[in-house]
Amino acid sequence: MNISKSILSFIFLFFFFILNGQILPVRLTTEMAENPLAVVQNQPKLSWQLISKESDASQVAYLILVASSEEKLKMDDGDVWNSGRANTDKNLHIVYNGKPLKSETKYFWKVKVWNQVGKVSKWSKTATFRTASLESDLNPIWIGAITKADSHLPEGRNYHTATFNREKKNSFINASDSLSRRSIMLRKPFEVEKAVKEAVVYISGLGHYELTINGKKVGNSQFAPLWTDYDKTVNYNVYELSAKDFQKGDNVIGVLLGNGMYNTLAERYTKFFVSFGPPTLFFKMKIKYNDGSEEIIKSDRTWKYSKSPITYNSIFGGEDYNANLEQKGWDRKGFKDRDWKKVVIQEAPKGVLRPQTASPVTIQKQYEVKTVKELKPNFYVFDMGQNLSGFPTIKVKGKRGQTIRVWVAEGLNEEGTIAQGRSGKPYYYDYTLKGDGVEEWTPKFSFYGYQYVQIENINYKEDKNKELPTLVDLKSNFIYNSAGEAGSFACSNEIFNKTHELINNSIKSNFQSVFTDCPQREKLGWLEEIQLNGPGLMFNYNLQNFLPATMQNISDSQRDNGLIPTIVPEYVIFGGDFTDSPEWGVTGVILPWMYYEYYGDASLLEKYFPVMKNYVDYLGTKATNHIVSHGLGDWYDYGTHPAGYSKNSPIALSATSHYYYGAYLVAKASKLLGKTEDFEKYNTLASEIKTAFNKEFFNEETKQYGTNSQFSNAVPIFMDIVEPQYKEVVMQNLLADIKEKGDRLTTGDVGNRYLFQTLARNGENETMYRMHNHYDAPGYGFQIKFGLTTLTEQWDPRKGNSWNHFMLGQIEEWFYQSLAGIMSDPEKPGFKHFFIQPEVVGDMTFAKADYQSVYGKIASSWEKKDGKFILTVQIPVNTTATVKLPVAKNSEIKMDGKRFKTGFDEKAQKPVLELGSGIYTIECTI
């Protein structure tokens, strides 16, 4: 009801102000988040978007008030900060400059602005932010069932290894029922005798937790807190509670703990076996009463624990639940816990306790059974219609003690049974019935990538066999990060539409605590996917708060010698090129730049400049005469050879080009940040690497690089390594190879982006269209024809392991930037100024995309109709756009029904319009 009122209020204000021709600040954010609960910075950055009915609207000044209470703010009393009128068009990343902020304190703020003609807006709606705790304020006490010393779990980070002696491995296995790996319930009764104003909870339950107050779940997270390298960083979550969450008299805090990545198990399937310690809990709740007094409830020796009904939980192996072990009402008042045991004080995790600022993983969608087959009596396989990351929900009825085993998988064997051979086996869920009518169960601490569900020895819906339990209902839960979607794309080409859907289902499946490679076999954060798919990721999803957490993980994982490993967090050390590959490690250099370009925020460049610099320095120690020769190269490049290490292109060419790119970006960052000495050093280094690269890999006779492969020639064009006088001929050689291959690619995981963007940025979008508008392998169409619902690890899904990988999804960048034509301007980051320059290719008749930039919604929609090209664009308030039209110079052009005289871009050979904010329809003769 409150949400509905809020929406209606916003709509009313929106129409009231824009109908009166006013500008209005909306969607206020602090540190890029709406009403955040754990702001770490002493000088947080405040931002807002602007709306106006008028076209060409902009801001010329603002005034911000920050107050210690909502009441003071309503009285226009900025007792914490009154910015005064600031004459600037800046509405993003305004640095707070008021009184020193106190920790664990809530602040209230609002803003008003002046538009381009000096008219002042109404005040915005009130926004809030709460400052984080200092670790000294938290003073964390960790509790659980067993100390790490008594658990006999392995010590030391050299145990984080993928391969080791089976006997040694088995010596470390503790039965999942032992306290070192067992899911436990913890409870703490407390009394409330006064009227509660508010309460704030600070909690970290490792590996994962579920928190209840008086039996009601707090928050909607799955797998909280998000994964980290627990030796370096431990996330805690913050929740706000209100008076309605408490009752007068007795109240109970309940916490359920599971293993997660903190404490993996070696039973059933596991990719690796690592432990940072047994399940553990830190908790603090500060209650504020109406009379001004406060009370703090913390994790301490007064808590009690008991084993939970979850008898097995492994992030890799599955989950088991015995309903007969349930203790009804355990997290409510009146429960008798005399048989529960007192908790022990545990060793604290080694990592720094930091507030989780990235959004949580939640259940986003739910799927019903699409089809079902009874392969033999009482043996069922269910097709849920969508490959996804998640877990099932079952409703069953039967006799006490009966067990239903639920198998899940991405694909099927020839006989129709589920196939886990490629994705990691055995993985399953066991549910033991209590025999009390219809019982419903959803796992809490394990997920898998699957589309099919197999259950044996059951009735389905009808009680045909009285000796077997009956499955009453089955659903599939799709979990992924709740950051939210930023964009959408559609066009007249069905292959491209379905490709967009395939890729995004794979991104969502792997959008967990980190961007994973696959949601079943590994669940690891292989870094190259983030930077190579970066533009597509940012066009599609709101990553303002997720990517800073990624950079923290990268910083935590960087070795003392500067190496950034291929996977982050580095739970397992694969060794060799699988730990150290430049195309993967350079993500730590590229990602802060992408963040700056898309969000206009240089904070990651500022904070992680040492990480960037140290990684480039590390590559320098591996170089001989500026040539780096190790790594995986263009991983999974396409050909008749088995997928894996680069086969079509030299690994040294790939590694050295990324060494150059890293040095170039560090030089660029040095210049932006005013680090003159560093700029001179890395600018010189980049120049030297470029010279060495061309000397080593460029053949002046053939005018080709490396092995003449598509990757070999595309990457030096994309990175601007090729000397200007040779660029065109190298480009023609690249096109000749594509044509010779029947307009098919030969690149892989690394090379795809460089190939696609080299073509797109050099006027070869028709080649891109032909390369992807087919149903053959290699290509997205082949996977569509194969009937898949997610993108696979290999172009031919019959050859790869995972059917849920997004690493080949680099075409998303082309969909948004080329087909729809939404292109950022690097000179004015964050889309303060941008380009709309759609490409009309092949037989396409329309394309449309929108993107929620930090300034507001950008949209581009074009169609070919009745001999005309019609383009509709939306430009946010306080931004400008350059529109380049894909028509001839002498085309008749009308805007909003009126003739319009345009400029002309001689280089692009296109008519050009310069536009301010607003929605425009441009009509051109073809």
UniProtKB/TrEMBL annotation:
Residue ranges annotated for the Alpha-L-rhamnosidase concanavalin-like domain, each copy included: 374-462
Keywords, comma-separated and alphabetical: Hydrolase
Broad class of enzyme this protein falls into: hydrolase
Domain Alpha-L-rhamnosidase six-hairpin glycosidase: 485-818
Domain Bacterial alpha-L-rhamnosidase N-terminal: 194-364
Xref: SUPFAM superfamilies: Six-hairpin glycosidases (SSF48208)
Domain Alpha-L-rhamnosidase C-terminal per the UniProt entry, residue ranges: 826-897
Catalytic activity entry: Hydrolysis of terminal non-reducing alpha-L-rhamnose residues in alpha-L-rhamnosides
Domain of life: Bacteria
Record flagged with keyword Manganese: no
Enzyme Commission designation: 3.2.1.40
Single GO molecular function: hydrolase activity
InterPro entries: 6-hairpin_glycosidase_sf (IPR008928), 6hp_glycosidase-like_sf (IPR012341), Alpha_rhamnosid (IPR016007), Bac_rhamnosid6H (IPR035396), Bac_rhamnosid_C (IPR035398), Bac_rhamnosid_N (IPR013737), Ig-like_fold (IPR013783), Rhamnosid_concanavalin (IPR008902)
Protein name in UniProt: alpha-L-rhamnosidase
Organism per entry: Flavobacterium tagetis
